[in-house]
Model the fold of this input.
Amino acid sequence: MVKVLRNLATSRVMDLLGIVIIFICAFLSGYLFESLNDVTHWGHWAIFVPFGLISAFDACMSIMSTRLVGRFSNWGNWIGVPEIILGCIIDYLLGNHGAILTYPISFIIQIWAIKTWTNSDKFKKSNLMNTAKGKILFVFLSLLSLLFSFGINYIGYGQLNSSDSVLYVLTSFVFGISLIANIMNAMKISTQWKFWLLYDFIQLAKAFSQFNFANVGKYIYYILMALAGNAYWGKDAE
Done:
């Protein structure tokens, strides 16, 4: 099974499958051909902005960023830079008011990752988690990231009302997990894949609860991708 997952991590067919799944899910969800006007109602000019297609393109960049990082390619971190900028704009327009504060943090971490990966051997991972200090740092990092996420999202949302409270909690928790994973990626720690796996399972549960079966398919793919990344990073690639 580990060998199969490691092969999936390097499979170009899996790359293409992920992109196909994104467009199919966007189509089935009904937003692939939405315009910016459907989301913001800013005026007739917004009709000409293909918001759905742009969102699907952003999701494809996210997939390729993760796929390339999964096989130790720094190009994955580089692709993550424009994806974060575009993702921030999309999330904010869709109602995530904390995006304007949280995404710049992700941007800084992404630049950190590029620098770290550039200055290290391609397949050399950090062994920090194999030390006692590393495990203590892991616990501290996890708690600090979650507290930071809830705090900065609270500032971003401002005065919460009943309609925002559930979205605030879910957004804060999910961002906290992704923050931990992104920091670990910047430090080239393989444990990041376990956090991405947790992140994807939460998103899968959310999709089930909303009866959004298009997203169910998408996050099943993401879970498989995280498992493949974990298997590939579990042993130095050849």
Summary: The longest helix spans residues 132-157.
